[in-house]
Amino acid sequence: MTVAGFTFNAFSENTYLLVDGATRQCAIVDPGCYTVAEQQALRRHIEANDLQVALLLNTHAHVDHVLGNQFVLTTWPGTPFLLHRLDLPTLRAVPAYAPSYGFPQYQPAEPTGELVAGQPVRFGTTELEVRFTPGHAPGHVVFYHAPTATVIGGDVLFQRSIGRTDLPGGNYATLLHSIETELMTLPDATTVYPGHGPATTIGEERHGNPFLIG
């Protein structure tokens, strides 16, 4: 599996394209593309690399991570869209506040299935482990790919920082517990691709993240 990243919208959100090398199937994680230019950048990359969109996955459903959900489902009809059930209220709240955040053209989309901790997600020959990591959002999950030591981490752990917990459904103690039990248990060499900012590693954050040491 390989990872391609795109930075979209006013929140500089990271959208990830996970590609199964054997089949050219791919999973789109947290499509934050809002403008036509952003949407077409994602589409062009997929078409130029002859990829087949197999899954749409949301780590969680805050506005900056779901702006492109409907675009994906319209562009590649029939794509399964998976979200943890505890984040359905988060997703369904987005239309009420999206305009005030500068996204008046947001188009909602409903999941077609659920993400469940411990139940793997598969596309092509790739299998992702779903880990439940609430604290930033009630139904937040991360996706771990052991063969490549990769985590698609959403807004849980950042380079030298952690996700905010002052939004509805957030909880600081819960987030720290999620990080300690679901991320810090992974090998130090594991690469974390976060929802904002540059990639980091578990080891780098274990030894240098001020929220996790001291």
TrEMBL record:
Residue ranges occupied by any Metallo-beta-lactamase domain in the UniProt entry: 12-196
Keyword Transmembrane found: no
Cofactor(s) for this UniProt protein: Zn(2+)
Pfam families named in the record: Lactamase_B (PF00753)
Gene3D superfamilies: Ribonuclease Z/Hydroxyacylglutathione hydrolase-like
Alphabetized UniProt keyword annotations: Hydrolase, Metal-binding, Zinc
Superkingdom assignment: Bacteria
Keyword Metal-binding: yes
Xref: InterPro entries: MBL_Glyoxalase_II, Metallo-B-lactamas, RibonucZ/Hydroxyglut_hydro
UniProt-listed SUPFAM superfamilies: Metallo-hydrolase/oxidoreductase (SSF56281)
Molecular function GO labels: hydrolase activity; metal ion binding
PANTHER family tied to this protein: HYDROXYACYLGLUTATHIONE HYDROLASE GLOC (PTHR46233:SF3)
Protein name (Swiss-Prot/TrEMBL): MBL fold metallo-hydrolase
Biological source species: Hymenobacter montanus
Biological classification of the source: Bacteria, Pseudomonadati, Bacteroidota, Cytophagia, Cytophagales
